[in-house]
């Protein structure tokens, strides 16, 4: 399994006079009260942080991936996107600024303030999303997608950064899984929403696909108000907990990894963190895990249409593959946190995803190919939050965590670029080359996991045997999570 930092804080040491039974009883009651207080505090944190972040990120995800639904609803024909690789170009251009601006966006998060910065980004991409409903050519759609990438760039890594600062290392996977599942599952049903919005075809002289962008953009602008009012910040800056509750949260983090209070961000630190090869390994793993997710979001409605289903059926059938993954992902998150182990669960998820992609690519019957989409999503949905937890567990300090989350999500955007370029228009409707590329990406995940596991095992062993002069990650008592 993995290792966990051992720490005993002075506040936890209770001196009890063994000759006094009443003192023992009082101490026992006090400990029970403290545990109950901790449980209630962290439950309050859960309800205050996870739902609001997941809700807003859901519409970031929808804005990023609703092109497939709009294309199926008639956008491709209206904007002359059926020629060459225009659809892939429009899909791809989003990721260029999205990747480049990940790290800068995360680095200014504290400078501008969580509420100010994230509310600005939500307003900006909501306005762009709404504007996409009025474009007259595919060229203007490309411009809107670029702007969407600019404004969404720092949002997801900022959310991961915030969540990871509130919890102990082996509590974070379950929270990330809940956050991810709420977002992705709700986003997965966006194809049904898109179908409903497309029924407004002809209203005010607008095509149905235009209403998809207009309504979803308007909803996002409303969510900007929710963001301004309720978005949580870092533990040391929060205003929704009492002073006693805040002290508890900060103490728990210090006991686990010693970085409750942020360290100053400097250019030298950023360079040092970027020179750590393990951060790039996490990012490449996340990039490869993102490929199946993006391919499902962008191309599943088109693939289903190619299987012979109607436009309506293709949109509606794109949603069910996201359902069963809710159960499987939460089971994986629960046992991963319980066992304090990550890499083995990632391997299992990747193997399930491989089976699913292979069925969709090579099975003869359309029903079996469609079943492959369920397996692909189940494996992929389980792997993504596990990878995020794996990366989060193995870094210490706010500065390195900021760089790590931005780099991981940024390289995940590269997975989006790869997905939109390997799924070429000339390969429709089966997209066999794209599916083969996705299979290869999962092999890369398994290779990198093997390398990281050997490295972490060796590093932990050296630390236990006293053969290392410097503590792992600069934190005494810290061991890598396998």
Q: What kind of sheet is the major sheet?
A: none
Q: In total, how many domains does the architecture comprise? A: 1
The tally of beta strands, per DSSP, is 0
Helix content: over 70%
**What percent strand?**
under 5%
| CATH third-tier fold name | Growth Hormone, Chain: A
Shape: globular
For the termini, the CA-CA separation is 7 Å
Q: Could you tell me the mean pLDDT?
A: 84
Number of helices: 21
**CATH superfamily placement:** MFS general substrate transporter like domains
Concise summary:
By secondary structure, the protein is mostly helical. The chain is built from 21 helices and no strands. The protein has one domain: MFS general substrate transporter like domains (Growth Hormone, Chain: A, Up-down Bundle).
Q: Could you explain the architecture of this structure?
A:
- The protein starts with 20 loop residues before the first helix and ends in an 18-residue tail after the last helix.
- 74% of the residues lie in helices and 0% in strands.
- The protein has helices at 21-65, 67-78, 86-93, 95-100, 102-107, 109-112, 114-131, 138-152, 155-166, 172-188, 190-198, 208-230, 243-256, 267-274, 277-306, 311-317, 325-339, 343-362, 366-393, 398-422, 432-464.
- The chain contains 21 helices and no strands.
- It has one domain (46-234, 273-467): Up-down Bundle (Growth Hormone, Chain: A), CATH 1.20.1250.20.
- The protein is mainly α and 482 residues long.
